[in-house]
Specification:
The chain is an alpha/beta fold. 48% of the residues lie in helices and 8% in strands. It contains 17 helices and eight strands. Strand 5, helix 15 and strand 6 form a beta-alpha-beta unit. Helix 8 packs antiparallel against helix 9, helix 9 crosses helix 10 and helix 10 packs antiparallel against helix 17. It is globular, with a radius of gyration of 29 Å. The relative contact order is 0.13.
Length: 506
């Protein structure tokens, strides 16, 4: 287990933490400046040296003193994570030495026995390799004095660093890290509770919502300006929310609350932005609270079956592969049922995702096999092995096709008959770029497929990230997972506080 994302509590209404006491800043490298984005010390802290606990910075404050305290807190968090990373590298096991070559017993006359043909071939090959290596070393020109003292060019980026399966790495101490640390601190995290996995995900989420944020936040800040809110500003804000596909119902709720607040008192721009964030969080949290399950997670010591449904091209199979990786990284045993037997190469695609995460795949290579039969075999295999989570990939279908919806009902009946004690979730995968059309899909599937949640994908390729608010307010479905990229680690459980902060980050 790398990091249990399913035990990471979601905070729907984080209260501001008290103003922090002055904390000691980690030493900076020589020549480093003390401006708003300094580089912390590259040298790791000595093992066993415990940093004193520091208080979390206050959330959503704008005074210069508190900003300095937040920056110092982020610096110390960065230093701790860097020390952890360096200690992990230093403590990595060294490669095992090659096994010793057994000595060949001498013959009775004191001479070694004659080599076999295979041993002679091996010896000749080793001799040729040694001769080639010696010749290459002899032909290499001696380095010039200039080359000997010239600084080495930075090595090219390793291919595995670009690989999505690589572990989370600590990047530079920049605005993204500082923002991520402040978001975690605003949720009540202490320094020793900040993990590299969370920092990495928050950076991905912020980058994924960049297209939506560019249009939404830019217009929003232009509307707010430096003057108190006015009815005219609220009218412009209404247009901005509708353009971001927040939806009519959600927009009306937000604007009604702002107008009521405006009638009671003068609202400054900073307070108006804070109040807007709270209203958006309340909209997203309402269906989650109504479900009675703040965070969707597989139940331990029990069979969990998650069906992924949706129309064609929304990313169901890719989402399934990312969920399988997420479950494995969180310490769950997982199995994939390749029940999309209609689309060409769907089974092969699922098999590749299973290999990337080390998850077994139950499939039927026969063309147009019965999806219910695949699920039948998968449930039996999961029960025999004691698997905790079964992820079922289904074929894309339009919500208007009655016969295909009946096929989903058949799969559900198979699950209820074979595993009546299983915890079953039916998750609709929605493409965020489809905007209001995605909302119509959600409402239609909710009636036909008994949905229990939504997975919102492709946030990084759309400027319509506000559709999450429309789905929560109009369809009444909880957002369970969000995908903000194409990588295997670009999908995580939904957190309304982090989503709104990333959506409205300046």
């Amino acid at each position: 287990m790398v990091f249990d994302w399913f035990k990471r509590g979601a905070t729907s209404d984080p209260s501001p933490a008290p103003e922090p006491e002055p904390v000691g800043e980690p030493p900076l490298p020589p020549g480093a400046s003390t401006d708003a984005s300094p580089e912390p010390d590259e040298s790791p802290e000595p093992e066993g040296a415990a940093s004193p606990p520091a208080a979390s910075p206050a959330a959503a404050t704008a005074s210069a003193g508190v900003d300095e305290a937040s920056l110092a807190w982020a610096r110390e968090a960065y230093a701790r994570l860097k020390a952890q990373q360096e200690n992990a590298r230093a403590g990595s096991p060294a490669p095992a030495p090659p096994p010793p070559v057994p000595e060949v017993p001498a013959a009775a006359g004191g001479e070694p026995p004659p080599l076999t043909l295979l041993e002679q071939a091996v010896a000749q090959r080793q001799q040729r390799l040694q001769d080639l290596a010696s010749a290459a070393a002899a032909s290499q020109p001696a380095p010039t004095p200039e080359a000997a003292v010239a600084p080495l060019a930075p090595p090219p980026r390793q291919a595995r660093e670009d690989n999505d399966e690589a572990e989370a790495r600590l990047g530079a101490f920049d605005a993204t890290f500082t923002w991520s640390a402040e978001v975690l601190a605003a949720q009540g995290r202490q320094l020793d509770q900040v993990s590299l996995e969370e920092i990495d995900w928050l950076g991905r989420l912020r980058r994924g919502l960049e297209k939506t944020r560019k249009g939404f936040v830019t217009q929003l800040l232009e509307r707010l300006g430096d003057d108190p809110l006015t009815p005219e500003i609220l009218d412009d804000l209404e247009t901005t929310l509708l353009r971001a596909d927040v939806g009519v119902q959600a927009t009306d709720q937000v604007l009604a609350a702002l107008r009521q607040r405006l009638n009671e008192e003068v609202v400054e721009p900073a307070e108006g932005l804070r109040f807007l964030k709270q209203q958006l969080r309340d909209l997203l949290e309402a269906p989650i609270e109504a479900s009675g399950q703040p965070l969707l997670a597989p139940e331990r010591q029990r069979l969990n079956v998650w069906l992924l449904v949706g129309v064609n091209g929304v990313g169901k199979t890719t989402t399934l592969g990312k969920l399988a990786n997420l479950a494995v990284r969180s310490g769950y045993s997982c199995l994939i049922a390749a029940a999309d037997t209609f689309r060409a190469a769907a089974v092969q695609q699922v098999s590749v995702w299973g290999e990337r995460s080390g998850v077994p795949v139950v499939a039927n290579p026969t063309a147009n096999a019965d999806p219910a039969a695949v699920v039948f075999d998968a449930i039996g295999a999961a029960q025999a092995k004691g698997t905790e989570l079964v992820l079922v990939d289904t074929a894309g279908r339009l919500q208007t096709k009655h016969n295909l919806m009946e096929e989903l009902s058949k799969v559900r009946r198979i699950i209820d008959r074979l595993a009546p004690e299983a915890a079953v979730q039916s998750l609709l995968v929605l493409d965020a770029s489809q905007g209001q059309n995605g909302l119509r899909q959600a409402m239609a599937f909710a009636k036909a497929a008994g949905l229990t949640g939504v997975v919102l994908t492709k946030l990084d390729g759309s400027a319509r990230g506000g559709v999450a608010l429309a789905v929560a307010s109009e369809a009444g479905l909880p957002i369970r997972f969000v995908g903000a990229g194409e990588g295997i680690r670009d999908l995580r459980p939904f957190n309304s506080f982090e989503f709104v902060e990333a959506l409205l980050a300046s």
